[in-house]
Write a structure and sequence with these properties.
Chain lengths: 465, 465
């Protein structure tokens, strides 16, 4: 009896279905490697992760796979050129992850992945190992079923969570090898599993660290209190004075380059499905909090922010210590929107911070990494292909949205390689990326693997026209 | 040949001189015990310290020496009743010390005392092991030279640095045993080694801890930043709003009970020798900082304060983490002056802190220990005796001053035992108590041992009149 498959069943879908268990196990394997780029004590693990990913690309069938060295962690490169005359898709992703702390808030260890209620729990499960690995498995599936419709080049970096400091140099040095037509990135979210969306805008980032020094040593708060500047009180006052009552940021010139929304933009954004009550319930907050005059969607997607990411000073141990500390510090980051510049913002911040410091303290301001905000076109072939691919797998046309996060390198790709990016992400805002108990839905993981080949197919078809 | 000493040489002075090396070694021995009462992991050391002190009192010749149990650490008690008709001096001190951190700022380990440039460097060298042990050695010297002029009772507690929570109960339960005429305490400073002084006022203390909770988990500052309250920003704003531009504390009712200074008080205080340039140089600050309209001496001695003693929240590790944290916390203490009450102040603080919190965060306020401010009389026999004793050993009449620190139990002694205290301290404000590299001058240690017997002598004489 013949075993010819009914033409209704696609070999690709079939292959993905047959191998879904392995696809998951391979991801869990990678999630066990604590590739935290922000903390140098994980260096061996980050390098181990790069090696592991290299092997996976080879196994998937990529050619010329190698770890391209940079001043920091290497970029994992691999490619498959099936026909130089066909379009070439450059897949970008990152294999490094955020620090896992506060560790005590994880219900299962951050680097011992568990699958629970249809979700993979582990640091990096969504951001970005899970979303990045969807591309590796989609690639394998296309190859094994002779379904790869164009050329592909992978560049997976290991420093995205610390600002991709060395990627620009990598792009400059590898322009030839990186020749292509479009950048495909899955490092963003969809609105909901039944509400597909594609990010068309990303915020930039300007990350600063400040240190306020009062007296040259910790003092007895009784003997000196009231007469000597307390650096913690001063730091709090300085931070407080960076926003006004309407939560507008008070740094002079901060908003000068902000691209204001048109009536049309606001009307479009207002159409985004969003339930404020569910939002508050999910976060267990009684009220939202932000810049006056803007909706939550506008606040996260289209307006700049100033958030203290960390603060420390004085005695933080058990009990009570009556100390007037010598120093207080904070990590403060600003999300930027078109057309702000991280470099200019860092300068405005530094000048302002120094200008508001009383003479009774000394100030040190350090600039960490930054990234530029971007808007991606919605009329491009790539966007249309991504939209059509998602419409087919989700059964709904994806909504163009603006993400609040930052992928600084999107601007770099345009500047150095002259290539636009398409942000076809499959995560959810509720995946707790950068938080304890980060997770990624199995639905989302497999939906990505299923959708990506369709992007290749439609992108190639539409490019011909 | 007879060895009769010339009457010019006092046997007491002679005894102190002959034994000075041993007096120092015994103190160093006690300084090696890390009796940190604030941190429960040092519990065995605090108890070891109590035992060690008990043995020293026995060796010095005290009777009925015992560790009197309390709900917390025991009080070391000992006495010598030479004649019930003579006055009785109750000596108070404490054998517990402040935590030693930040440890990295100590030039030699906090609990490995070293003598350098005529100073003893160790946690507790001045506050209060050094000043407390002067009394034990002065007592020994008086006994051994038949120079003890009145009865003495020692009560050395182990919880002063955490607010003497159990001392009140101890006093109530031991009223009979603690019958006496005056409390003698050395836990304060003199203005300078050539400018003796006696504290006649002490500030009280109200120590609070606050926790601000925003979202129920750490969030990605890009995805949520701008739309959700950041507890660190909010905490900073709340702390900043507790003082106005003139550094007046804005808590409603905070100043209601503050005893205002009379013209005369201010004139007297203005006479205190004080060099602002040396003060700034010692602390390496460009400017002092405090409540408008008051001098530095007034700010530390006669005005209440609000100082953040510690703050923490979010990511404080290496590098950059773009987190919008769930929680932020701070330890905030207020120094109180007559006639403020720590209990009422804690209530005012709590009500105000809750009232200024936006609806987008949740607040938790905890009250740590408190203590009441005191003023001690300058017309008492005890004060006059102390003044005469110091005038004799320093060659200068001591200046009555107001200390900024707190010894909460001074108010307790008055309330429960009905006894006034005399604050005859021998430390210096520059001894870095509560700070890294705490030290105590050998000059000050021996000057104390030499002065204390004279206090007994003059107190007994003047009491007869």
């Amino acid at each position: 009896m013949s075993t010819v498959k009914s033409p209704a069943v696609s070999p690709l879908k079939d292959y993905i279905k047959t191998n879904d268990k392995r696809f998951l196990d391979e991801l869990l394997e990678l999630l066990r490697i604590p590739s935290v780029s922000a903390d140098s004590k994980y260096k061996p693990d980050v390098l181990k992760m790069a090696e592991a990913l290299k092997s996976k690309l080879v196994a998937a069938g990529a050619d010329k796979v190698e770890l391209v060295p940079t001043a920091g962690y290497p970029v994992v490169y691999g490619e498959k050129i099936i026909d130089p005359k066909l379009p070439t898709v450059l897949v970008y992703g990152h294999y490094d992850v955020q620090p896992a702390d506060p560790l005590n808030l994880w219900t299962s260890p951050a680097f011992e992945p568990v699958v629970k209620d249809g979700k993979i729990y582990a640091r990096g499960s969504c951001d970005d190992k899970g979303q990045m690995y969807m591309h590796v498995k989609a690639f394998e599936s296309m190859l094994k079923t002779n379904d790869l419709s164009c050329n592909v080049k992978f560049m997976i970096e290991g420093e995205e969570e610390v600002g991709s400091a060395n990627l620009g140099q990598f792009l400059k040095e590898n322009k030839e090898r990186l020749k292509g037509d479009v950048i495909l990135i899955s490092d963003t979210s969809i609105l909901a599993n039944d509400v597909p969306s594609i990010d068309v805008g990303l915020r930039g980032l300007c990350y600063m660290e400040v240190e306020v020094t009062g007296p040259n040593r910790d003092l007895h708060s009784g003997v000196y209190g009231g007469a000597v500047a307390n650096p913690i009180n001063i730091l709090c006052e300085m931070i407080a004075s960076m926003k006004d009552k309407n939560n507008h940021i008070t740094i002079p010139g901060f908003y000068d380059d902000v691209l204001q929304l048109s009536k049309e933009d606001r009307a479009d954004l207002a159409k985004t499905p969003f339930n404020i009550e569910n939002y508050k319930k999910d976060l267990d907050i009684n009220d939202i909090h932000g810049e006056a005059g803007f909706s939550t969607i506008e606040r996260t997607g289209t307006r700049p922010t100033l958030d203290v990411n960390g603060i420390w000073g004085g005695y933080t141990g058990e009990g009570a210590k009556t100390v007037l500390p010598s120093k207080a510090s904070a990590k403060i980051s600003m999300r930027l929107v078109p057309n702000q510049s991280s470099e200019k913002t860092a300068e405005l911040f530094t000048n302002y911070f120094n200008s508001i410091a009383p003479n009774s303290v000394k100030i040190k301001v350090t600039t960490h990494h930054g990234g530029e905000p971007v808007l991606t076109p919605t009329d491009s072939v790539a966007f249309k292909a991504a939209s059509k691919a998602m419409e087919e797998t989700f059964g709904k046309k994806p909504i163009p949205t603006r993400g609040g996060g930052s992928i600084p390198i999107v601007a770099l790709f345009e500047k150095i390689l002259g290539l636009k990016s398409v942000l076809m992400g499959f995560g959810l805002d509720t995946d707790a990326i950068h938080s304890p108990n980060e997770h990624f839905g199995l639905f989302n993981y497999y939906k990505g693997i299923e959708t990506i080949p369709l992007f290749y197919k439609y992108y190639t078809e539409m490019s011909k026209k």
